[in-house]
Structures are given as C-alpha cells and as structure tokens.
Amino acid sequence: MALMHAGLLLLLFCSAHSNQFRGAPGHGLFVEDPELEWERMETVIGEANTEAPEPDAKFWRSSSSYGSSQTAAKKVPEYVIVPASKIQKEAFKPEKGARPLPNSVKELLLSSTATAKASGKAARPKMIEILCHVDRMYVRIRREIFKTKDAYKDLKLGSCPVNQGTKVHYFFLYLLSSDCGFKKESNTDDVSIRNVLHYKPSTPVIREMPFDIPLQCKFPRFFHSYKVGFYPKLRGGTVFKALQPKSDYTLTPQDASGNEITGAKTYTLGQPMYFEAKKPSGREKSGDQRIYVKKCFMTAAKDPNSSPKYTVIDNQGCMIDSKLTDQSKFLTGNSKTMQKFSIGALVFKDSVSSSSSSQQLYMHCEISMGKLTPTTSSKACSYDATSKKWKELYGEDSICTCCESTCSATSPKASRNLVSSHSWKVDLSSKDKDIEFEPLMKMADSFDLEDPEMEEHKDFLNYWDNDY
Length: 468
Known about the structure:
The protein is mainly beta. The radius of gyration is 41 Å and the shape is elongated. A hairpin with a 2-residue loop joins strand 3 and strand 4. The protein is 8% helix and 26% strand.
C-alpha cells in the first residue's frame, strides 16, 4: 500500500531529547531514535511502491526469420496502477478470436510517468512531513517554525500529543488503532485516513498563530482485469436433492424460565420438561400464521424410526399424555409463531437396568404452519382433568372433540416437518429411598354408602371408576 506525503505542511514537535516525551505512557509508539524510525519507515514504504522492472528489450525484438528490420518494441511496465473509476470492464472481457485493442486502453497501458529531473539547487527542507503505512501514521515538524520552547505542549494530532522528539523535529508516531480521532473513508479509487493537526497556544501571549491543518493518507485500490473478465455460463444437468431436507423448524428443550438448554441436562422422574417449537430467528411469518405441533414422540435412540417409542402428542395436535399427568400440556407464549409445551419426565420401563443410573431420550415432532384459527387437523388441545374436557390453547374447545376418536387430516403426512431435539437424560435413582414414613390414613375394608358418616363422600365414590 502506498503512503502519501501531505501537500500541505504538517506541524510536529520534538524535544532535544526523546526522554522528554516518555511521561505519557500508552500514547503511540516509543522508539530510541525517532529519526532512524522515520528513515526505516520511508524505506519500507519505498519498497512497497517500487514497480516491477521493465522487461528486457531483447525479448521484444522482432524475429529476423520474418525478414523484418523493425526496432525493439516499446518497453512497458509489468503492471500499471489505474483508478478503478477509469477501468473499461468490457474491454477486458475475454472472448473467442481476436479484436483490436481500443485506443483508450492503449493509451492507458502505454502511458509513461515522467521522471522528475534533479534540480541543481538544494531542496528546501520540508517544515511538516507525513508518512502513512497500512497500520500507522507518522508526522514530524521542524522545531524551527516555533518561537516558543514548549510549543509541543499545545500541539496535537487529533486528540493525541507529541510523543517523540529530537533537536530538529517534533514527532507524532501513532498506530491507526490509537484513540487519536482517525477517520476512515472508503472511496471508489482509494481508502483514505484523515485527521487534523492542531496548534492552540495556551499561554497568555502568543508568538505563533494557532492553526488547524487537515491531514490525509490515501491508499489506492488495485484493479485486476480478471476480477471482471470472466462470466461463467450455467449449463443444464442432474440435480440431486436429499430425501430428508433440513427442516424449516427447530425443537429446543428449555428450562422453566424459557431459556434454551444447550448443554447436557438431566431430569428426575416426574419433573416437568419444557420444549419450544419455532422457525429459526428471522424466518418467522407474521399476520395470520400460527405454528402447530401435530405429533410428538420420544425414543431412546437418535433415530426417530427406532424402538421403543412413546407418543405424547397425536391425532393432529392432541396432547394425549395430558390424560395421564397434569404436567403434560400445551403452554401459551409471546407469539403464535412458536409453540411451547411441557411433558412429565419419564423413562422406558423395558430399558431400565440395574447397572444404569440414567436413561438418554430424544423428542421428535411433526410441525407445520397454518392459519390462526385452529381446525380439527391443526390444533393444540390439552386435557383438563378438572372439567374432564379437552381444551384448545387459543381457539374454540369444540375443535378438540375429535381427540377422543380420530381427527381428520387435510394435508398429507409427507408435507409435515419431522424435527428432532438434542438429547437429555432422566435420573433413575431415587433420592428419597431411605426416607421412612407412617401413613396418616388407613383404608377401610369396604365402604357403605348408606352409612351416614359416608354421606359427604358419595360423589367421590360414584366417580371412582370414571377417574381410573
């Protein structure tokens, strides 16, 4: 990247000894000899800007076998730096055969930069200089332009003070990452870094006028013809599509507060487990859309086709496990484009072994998106043990009547999305196995409904068979 000297003179302060500026730790770079550092950076920049050598003329002479006495071809550089705004993209587009090179492109490629002839007069020393590199900006100012010995105290590069100095110069040696107020600007042909050099005397009297000098480093953008020259053509062919494409939905275990459980999680038997089905962030549909969980089942293996399996939601959105425990039910949420539900922790009886203290499980659900108004084929129904009725989460409870029989499906099963959650474990050990207790009530051998003392329990006894 090129570093440019500022056209305007730039002011920089330096003390007779570098140690004078070591009292400001953390302000820019500190070097033992700032003049040597300046020369070193000039060399680095010069090498970076050196163009490739021109090709040897002997490779450009025409062959004598053609009987021609042409002179050597004109020397051209290996590459030319051209502003991106002047590039004619169509002229560099590859095509079959040959075509004449446009005159505008010839002029662009064959233009030679005039070399400045050395003047016999000694060059006047620059009062203010700037060096720019990819990660830093160096500024130096000749001390002779100031009449005040402590002028450096009132000299700032943006918000940063002078941090180095010699008998001749004041130096600002700062990385662009320093908090000096560097401003980056991206243009078509270059990237520029800007700042302002301030001199504001704080003494009661002044011997130099205050000033603000804008500084700018420009890094030209390089253009290569191949960046715009190739236009691939799409050709027909066979496209293979996976039989089980990635689902548009996610199924994530959560804690009671609604936070996603990302790591390993172990539940105890009977403890409620929470799940959330939704579309990934940023892909939710708004308006009259609502998400429905049609079916959910658990397996002890990651493969949803494995056995054994236990179904908790079925029949197009009926929480059938809610007839067995109050912990299993659909839950309301902040948005209808996601669906939360809870399940009581359980294990497979046939998979329980004396050597295992826990069992790993997976949840698999069929999820779809539908209208806000539920139907018999898209609903979220939970069984309410108190009223002994099925209730829809947001809609009319009459939709849930079919949960006791078979609910019709309007869409084919293949159109649904089967989504699997990551695994969790259920602890099989009983923490209360050593606790002893005495029953507080003893059951009678039989009940006599005609007994006056049992009058208040008639309803309970009449519905005993219905509840179990």
